[in-house]
Design brief:
Helix content: 25-40%
Structural class: alpha/beta
Number of helices: 7
Shape: globular
Number of strands: 6
Largest sheet: 6 strands, parallel
Order of helices and strands: HEHEHEHEHHEEH
Strand content: 5-15%
Distance between the termini: 45 Å
Radius of gyration: 17 Å
Length: 250
């Protein structure tokens, strides 16, 4: 995707943005009622990265569900995600070291799940140590439109972050897909980022999965939890695109 194309993505409407807190709260309140069925995981290690401005608390329900599905789940353990501190390649190096350590500790490749900006981290870690990564799953991660078409930059600046390092060359690099199976879960009703910026180009081990969820509600939405667990439960080396179960007719 050409770097100039990111400039043509349209940010979600202000009405959608304003509705995000209410819709996310609705997802949290209703998720126990629509709790997704558990899958039988194989116990391999999984690291979950929170979104911008979020911490482990925001991803606790997702991690709890994955633990119940028999995965060995780890938080990213860096507290609130305030954005990269300095050069992103150097900063991500700390995350790479931890994934390599988990790979060595468990003797198995590590799956990475990242929400929003956390998905950028997951993708970059996989690029730096693909030998230690089993697959990457991103939730509402606009890797294709980081320079425009979303409200995330404004939110980062409000938190005191710096977006000046997001050069066209860096944006082009961040758009490149990691060399491992990759699933991008996105929502056309996302109020924070452009859903089109979350779409990965077609490839045999790449998929884009649409859900009806808010941006803030991604880590608690029942369908998202079910899809993430389904993707993680695939046998290593036997990755296949996601297929929704058929609805039985009466």
């Amino acid at each position: 995707m050409p770097s100039s194309q990111a400039l043509h993505f349209q940010a979600p409407s202000l009405a959608l943005l304003a509705s995000e807190p209410f819709r996310a709260l609705l997802d949290i309140c209703t998720s126990p009622l629509g709790r997704p069925p558990r899958v039988a995981g194989d116990g391999h290690p999984v690291v979950v990265y929170p979104g911008l401005g979020a911490s482990s608390m925001a991803t606790s329900q997702l991690r709890h569900h994955l633990k119940n599905c028999n995965f060995t789940v780890h938080d990213w353990e860096l507290g609130v995600n305030r954005g990269p501190d300095g050069d992103i390649a150097t900063w991500v190096g700390r995350l790479v070291e931890r994934v390599r350590a988990l790979h060595q500790l468990h003797g198995r490749k590590v799956s990475l799940v990242g929400w929003s900006l956390g998905g950028i981290y997951a993708r970059e870690v996989a690029k730096q140590c693909p030998e230690a990564v089993r697959q990457v799953i991103t939730l509402a991660t606009p890797f294709g439109s980081l320079g425009g078409g979303n409200h995330a930059g404004t939110i980062l600046r409000m938190m005191g972050g710096d977006t000046s390092h997001l050069t066209p060359a860096l944006q082009e690099h961040l758009r490149q897909r990691p060399p491992v199976p990759t699933s991008s879960i996105y929502s056309k009703t996302d109020g924070v980022v452009s859903w089109k910026g979350c779409l990965e180009e077609a490839a045999p081990d790449v998929e884009n999965i649409a859900v009806q969820a808010s941006h803030m509600g991604m880590p608690t939405h029942p369908e998202v939890l079910r899809i993430v667990a389904d993707r993680l439960a695939q046998p290593e080396g036997a990755w296949r695109p996601f297929r929704r179960p058929r609805v039985r007719r009466a």
